[in-house]
Amino acid sequence: xxxxxxxxxxxxxxxxxxxxxxxxxxxxxxxxxxxxxxxxxxxxxxxxxxxxxxxxxxxxxxxxxxxxxxxxxxxxxxxxxxxxxxxxxxxxxxxxxxxxxxxxxxxxxxxxxxxxxxxxxxxxxxxxxxxxxxxxxxxxxxxxxxxxxxxxxxxxxxxxxxxxxxxxxxxxxxxxxxxxxxxxxxxxxxxxxxxxxxxxxxxxxxxxxxxxxxxxxxxxxxxxxxxxxxxxxxxxxxxxxxxxxxxxxxxxxxxxxxxxxxxxxxxxxxxxxxx
Length: 275
Known about the structure:
Largest sheet: 5 strands, mixed
Helix content: 25-40%
Oligomer: single chain
Order of helices and strands: EHEHHHEEEEHEHEHEEHEEEH
Radius of gyration: 18 Å
Number of strands: 13
């Protein structure tokens, strides 16, 4: 049986797709990796808000899955829309790796630093920590953003620690930002294997139940708040407690709530949501 596995075509995405493939290979199963270009890959300069809504890195891959051109889609769970499109379902989450954000180029935040990130979530929380930072828009894959840090003379860039680790670049990390400082994106650190509804058995053996429990609580909370790439909204489950936040773009206010019920947290935070 040939299992066609689709993902974005970046070095990180293909590394992650191979990681997923290693979990799916078994006697009688042949894996074919199929790179797919998404809207977020085609345009690496515009802010996300000018390209489209949340999901700019997954839409074309989901369409290929719905059309039957691939059998499994591998996504960074943080890139997905908060709910699955009709006809698709996450059949497995691989065990979560480090969910934290990482500061590359410096080991602390200092007033006046120039820090690169395209994420409104990161921007808002970094400014809440240090209002005198200069946050500069920076897009591209991990290698590109690390290179642009030097080319533009930035003091630091903020990237997902798990992506750096998967590419063997953990030496670039100067500081791992704890969730109490910068709350991660819902799903950050986890890989989601999406399939057509009714075909969950294709990937079921790769599922990590504890990662599923945490990530689905995070996604449900963000969906209920109404957040996405265009709003400073985040959710993270540490295994014991779910924490979610909404914030002002400029970090002038941040509202955090913690509890067990994603819907209850979302109800509390929705009143503050800028979305």
